[in-house]
Amino acid sequence: MLTLRSVSPAALALALLAAGPARAQEDPHLALEGVETPASLDWVKAENAKTLPVLTGDARYQGLHDAALKVLSAKDRIAAPAFVGTSVFNFWQDADHVRGVWRRTSMDSYRSADPKWETVIDLDALAKAEGKNWIWKGADCRPKTHDRCLISLSNGGKDAVEVREFDLATKTFVKDGFFLPESKQTVDWLDADTLILTRDWGAGTTTDSGYGMVVKTLKRGQARDQAVEVFRGEKADVSARPHVLRDAKGNRVVLIERATDFFHTKTFLLDDAGKAALLPIPERSSIRGMVGGDLILTVEEVWNYEPMPSLGRNFPAGSLVSVSPKALLPKPASPTGDIVISNDCDPCTIFQPGPRQSIDQVAVTDNRVVAVIYDNVKGGIRSFSDHGEFGWRSQGLPGLDNAAVSIVATADSGDQVFYTVEGFVTPTQLKLADATKAGAETVRTLPARFDASKLQVEQKEATSKDGTKIPYFLVSQKGGKLDGSAPTLLHAYGGFQLSKLPVYDPVIGKLWLERGGAYAVANIRGGGEFGPAWHEAALKANRQRAYDDYFAVAEDLISTKVTSPRHLGAYGRSNGGLLMGVALTQRPDLWNAVVVESPLLDMIRYTKLPAGASWIGEYGDPDKPQERAWIETYSPYQNLKAGVKYPLAYITTSTKDDRVHPGHARKFSARLADLGQPYMYYENTDGGHANGADPAANAKRWALHYTYLSRQLMDH
C-alpha cells in the first residue's frame, strides 16, 4: 500500500499515473493553478532559470533577437488606420515608444508620403506617471460628435480592462467623466451621455465563464450602483453583452446578445422602454452591422425563415443575409385578419458561398456591405449594394492572386474602406477604396522584410484518416533537395471557426525562411476555411478529426521527402497549443521539436479555470460522463505516459494570461518532469494571452522560439 508521506512528489505522481484515472484525479500539481501564489511563482522562477541560460546563451539568440526587434519596431511599418470622425487614428509602438502612442492625422496627411502625426495619448508617459503596467486595449468614440472616447487600459495585458472617458479636444481624461474599474466588460454608447454595459457588478452578476451577465445603463453623473438593469442572463451562459448599431439614415437599434455557449447566441431587441424582445434569428449567427435599416448577418446554421406556414425562405449555413427588424418582429394583421407579407426581399441573401468558399470578414459603410470571401483559402473582397426587390448586387475590389485579405477600417461617414492584401512572400499592401466605385488606391506597401527570391509557395493536399482532403500551404526553398533534410515548421490552429491564411509574416520570414527553413500551414478541420461545416466537423466528440488532419499533413511532408521527423517541428498557440499537446502525446514519432504556446492541456479541468467554461461549445463538458469519455482520449495532461520517448518540447505561457490559464502549461511541464522527460519551460510575467506586451517583449519571445527550433531542427 502506498504511504503518501513516505514518497517524493515525483514518485507520487508516477504512482498516481500507474494507478489509473480514478487515482490520477488526485492531481499532484494542482497547486500550480495558483496564478501568483509564492509557491507557483517560485516554481516559475526556477523553470525560467533553467531554460533562459540555455536559449539566450546560444550563439544565435542575440542575432535572432535583434532581427526580430528590428522588424517589430521598424518605423517604416504600415501604420494601421482607424477612422474617428474625419480623422485617421493609429496606435503605434517602436523602440522609442515601447508601450505606444495613440495618435491622429488628417486623411490627406495619412495618404501622403510623410504623414504628420499628433500624439493624443502617450502610454509610456501615462504608465510612468501612474506607476502602472498599462497595455493599450483600444478606444470607443462617441458616435456623431466623435469628441469623447472610452479608453480601455489593461494592467499587464489581461483581458480585464479599466475604462476611462477621454476628451479628444483637450487630450485629457474627463474629470468626473465615465470611469469603470478593472473588469472583463463590454461597453457601448447608448447616447452622448448614457452608456450601456455589462461587467462584474458584484456577487451574482457574472457567469461560470467569468464574464458579465447583467446589462445596465449608466447615465453621466450616476454612480455605478445607480446603474439601471435592463437585462439579465443566466449563470450557465458565457456572457450577456450589449451592441448598439446605427446607420447613415439615422436608424438605431440596441441589441442584447446572450451567449448561451461560445457559438450559440440568443439575440434580443431592446426598445426605448427597456423591454427586450427575442429575435427569431438562428442562434448560430453573427450580426455584422446595419445598412439602410437592415441588419446584416452571417448565419452559421440553416435558417428557415417562415413568417407564415405557406411561405418560407431557406438560407444555407454560411450565408450572408440582410433582414429588417420589422421582418423579425410579430407581423401586423390586415383588416381581414391575414398576416401582411411584404413583396420586398426581406430577409434577402446577399451572398451564398459555394462548397470551397467561406466568408471571413464583413463590414458596413453608409451604403454598402463589404465582405472578404475566400475560395480554396485564397482571398478576395467584394462590395454589395441593395437593389430592393431585385436583391443585392456585387462588385469586386482590387486584390492579389493567392493572397490573404483583411478589412482594416470603414469610415464613420461615407463609404471609404481600408483593407490589406498580402501573401506568404508578398509584402502587405494597404488599399483605400470607395465601396460604391470600382478600383482602389494603394496607400502603403510594406518594405520587404526578408529575402524571398529563393522561396516558392505551393498549395498541396494531404489525405486524412477518414479520407478527407486537407489543404496546406508550403513555403520552401526553390530547388531544394527532396531528401528529407529541410528543417520544416508545421503550423495549424483547427478550432473556433478561425482560418489560417496565407499572410506575410516578417518574423517567420527573417528568423526562419531566410535562414533555410521551410514553413507549412495546415488548413485542418475545426477552422473556418470552408465555412461552418468545416468547423463543425471537428466539434466535441469529433475533435480527433482535427488532430488526424494535422498528422496527415505531417506524414505528407515526410512521405514526399520535404522533411523527416528529425527535422520536422510543430507550432501552435492557445487552441493550437492544445493541438501541440496532442501532437506530443499521440504522435511523438513525427517531430523533433514542439512549441506549445499559451496552451490548453488539462482538458478534464479546463472548465474550472477562468474563461474555460465558455469553450464547452467547442470541446464538450468534462463534468458529463459521456463527454468526459471522449475528452479523456486526447487530453494531453492525462495522456502523458511513462515509458514513452517524447521529443524535447518548448512550453511557454504568460502569468498575466487571464484567458487561457497558465496552470495548463505549468502542470504539463511538471508532469513531464515527473516522468523524467526532457522539456523546456518559459513563462513571461507580462503580456496577457497575446504573450507580448511590447515590441521588446515580443522580440524576446520570438528569439526564444527560433533559437529552440534552430537547435532542434537545423543542428545535425
TrEMBL record:
State the signal peptide span. 1-24
Sequence ranges assigned to domain Peptidase S9 prolyl oligopeptidase catalytic in this UniProt record: 512-713
Name its GO BP terms in alphabetical order: proteolysis
Alphabetically sorted, this entry's keywords are: Hydrolase, Protease, Serine protease, Signal
Record domain Peptidase S9A N-terminal: where: 26-437
- Name the Gene Ontology molecular function terms of this record: oligopeptidase activity; serine-type endopeptidase activity
| Gene Ontology CC: one annotated term | cytosol
Keyword set includes Flavoprotein: no
Q: Which Pfam families match?
A: Peptidase_S9 (PF00326), Peptidase_S9_N (PF02897)
Q: Which InterPro entries match?
A: AB_hydrolase_fold (IPR029058), Pept_S9A_N (IPR023302), Peptidase_S9_cat (IPR001375), Peptidase_S9A (IPR002470), Prolyl_oligopep/macrocyclase (IPR051167)
PANTHER family reported for this sequence: PROLYL ENDOPEPTIDASE
Q: What is this protein called?
A: S9 family peptidase
- Organism of this sequence: Caulobacter flavus
